[in-house]
Specification:
With 237 residues, the chain is α/β, with parallel strands linked by helices. It has one domain: 3-Layer(aba) Sandwich (Rossmann fold), CATH 3.40.50.150. The protein has eight helices and eleven strands. The longest helix has 27 residues, at 2-28.
């Protein structure tokens, strides 16, 4: 009798859990028509943008990128130490990975991307650069697939606004970060109409804080020394 009652209780709890998860999902993500650059899925009042495919590698590696974004200054903002373990989420073709890896010479740089073609591009380039501290990880729409409690710094450059599941991705990053770990969120400034990017590929500081606070982070500071982008540093709250 006890066994049957125990099984029934587990069944009820499981049903309640599944119902709660569905309810949470329904309350946090909404679906409606929006911008042609968006996927029709919204989170906290923001429409999620389409992911840029591997066909855009040429744009990521464009020669004028340093001038437009001052990527050298961005790397200095990271204050990379020799033993740092860093994760570049949405690493793309490895533009920033190959700048960070030599600085974290005794540490590690995880290059995380959901597109195998992007990881293949990094692997191919590293045949020339021969850096032994770069680790390739194929993530998913809901997970970075990073080791738990292992990362000092996470870098996301113009990619967070494309996450189809930002709640799940931030939860995954939170697990991967060490207690004093930092997230560097780099996004084109939505507050500045002079930044020549599509609306959905920009993000305001206010919106970023709202979403990250909901995930258990707080803004440490926003370094405002880049031409077009926010450089927001978040830590666990």
């Amino acid at each position: 009798m006890f066994y049957k009652g125990y099984i029934l209780l587990l069944s009820i709890l499981s049903t309640v859990s599944l119902y709660s998860q569905d309810k949470i999902s329904a309350e946090t993500y909404t679906y409606k028509k929006g911008d042609y650059s968006g996927i029709g899925k919204w989170y906290m009042g923001r429409e999620i943008a389409y992911v840029m495919g591997y066909q855009g590698i040429g744009w990521l590696e464009r020669p004028e990128r340093e001038y437009e974004e001052n990527t050298s200054k961005l790397i200095r903002n990271l204050d990379i130490q020799p033993n740092d373990v860093i994760a570049d989420i949405g690493a793309g073709s490895g533009y920033h990975v190959f700048k960070m890896a030599p600085l974290a010479k005794n540490g590690k740089v995880y290059a995380v991307d959901i597109q195998k073609e992007m990881l293949n591009a990094i692997q191919q380039e590293n045949k020339t650069q021969e850096l032994d501290n770069i680790v390739l990880i194929q993530g998913t729409e809901k997970s970075t697939n990073l080791p738990e409690d292992s990362i000092d710094k996470i870098l996301m450059v113009d990619v967070y606004h494309e996450f189809s599941f930002p709640i799940e991705m931030l939860a995954s990053m939170k697990k991967a970060l060490k207690p004093n770990g930092e997230i560097y969120l780099i996004e084109y400034r939505a507050e500045d109409d002079n930044v020549p990017m599509k609306r959905l590929h920009k993000m305001s500081e206010k919106q970023a804080i709202k979403e990250f606070e909901a995930a258990g982070f707080k803004l440490l500071k926003n370094i405002s020394n880049l031409p077009w982008q926010h450089c927001m540093i978040f830590i666990k709250s």
